[in-house]
Structures are given as structure tokens and as C-alpha cells.
Design brief:
158 residues, Immunoglobulin-like, 2 domains, 4-stranded antiparallel β-sheet, 13 strands, 3% helix, LAG3 protein
Length: 158
């Protein structure tokens, strides 16, 4: 897993044996064990790593006015009860929240306002709730509000 895995040497002296994986991949799912031997004693710790994967079709960045399919899946073993998408984490009337039993969200005519932070939240039959956030990038034309542009003679026009 090198070079994605690291230990903080300075933290080891303070008894922190945390493992850092960056970036996490789907194949990193599983059980991890840390064993520390200090003098004659051996201490161990087991940690299970689960992974949530967000898939875009077409892939990020996407083009304005296209159809976008966003899927959210995890390695959790219980049955999926509900999947919700939250856009920009706004509260109140400007929030955009979409919930369903399906793990895929479809946006028919993608707009530039759909860009930004999206959070996928999965709720399972064992009451486990897990979520992840990603940034959606949208390519589009950001032209003038009027189709007529005036420029002075001898100057540049954009």
C-alpha cells in the first residue's frame, strides 16, 4: 500500500500508533491489526475499515445540461434501508435533499447550480448510518446575461 500508508513517528513516542491511508481505495476494505511489543508485553488492536464509494456517470467534471447519474455504495454488510443525497448542506428552504431506496440519483438537465458539495448518507437495517461528501464540478458556459457586447474601437473585447 506504499506510498499511501504512513505512521506519524512523533506520535509513536506518545503511544499513538495510528495508521493513515491516503487516499483510501475500495480494495482497502477489511480488518487491520496493530501489534505493539513493549518490553515483555504485547498489545494489539483490531480495526475494521469500511469504504463508501461515490460513482458519477459521466465522470467528474461533468458538462452542463447533460444527464448525470450519481451512485453511492458501501462495504457495509446489512441491508440498505434508505439513501439520501444532500446538496451544499444548506438548511431551510434552499436545501436540496433527495431520499430513496435506490443507491442512484439521476439529474436530467444538469445546471451550474448543481455544482458544489454533495453528501451521500446511507441508512441500514442494523440502524447504522454512514455518509461521505464529495465535490461535484460542472463545466459550462458562463457568458454575459445579454447576447450583445459593446466594445470601444481600438480596445479588446471578450
Amino acid at each position: 500500500m506504499k506510498p499511501r500508508v504512513s505512521l506519524q513517528d512523533s506520535a509513536l513516542r506518545r503511544g499513538n500508533f495510528s495508521l493513515r491511508i491516503d487516499p483510501v481505495r475500495s480494495e482497502d476494505v477489511g480488518l487491520y491489526e496493530a501489534r505493539v511489543k513493549h518490553r515483555a508485553e504485547v498489545h494489539s488492536c483490531l480495526v475494521e475499515l469500511g469504504v463508501i464509494t461515490v460513482t458519477l456517470s459521466p465522470p467528474n467534471p461533468v458538462i452542463e445540461n447533460e444527464l448525470l447519474l450519481m451512485s453511492c455504495n458501501s462495504s457495509h454488510r446489512a441491508s440498505l434501508v434508505e439513501m439520501c443525497w444532500f446538496h451544499d448542506n444548506h438548511l431551510g428552504p434552499t436545501s436540496r435533499t433527495f431520499c430513496s431506496l435506490s443507491s442512484t440519483l439521476s439529474i436530467l438537465h444538469l445546471a451550474r447550480s448543481d455544482a458544489g458539495s454533495w453528501r451521500c448518507q446511507l441508512r441500514y437495517s442494523d440502524e447504522e448510518i454512514i455518509s461521505t461528501t464529495f465535490n461535484l464540478q460542472i463545466l459550462g458556459f458562463d457568458g454575459p446575461s445579454s447576447p450583445v457586447v459593446y466594445a470601444g474601437a481600438g480596445s479588446a473585447a471578450d
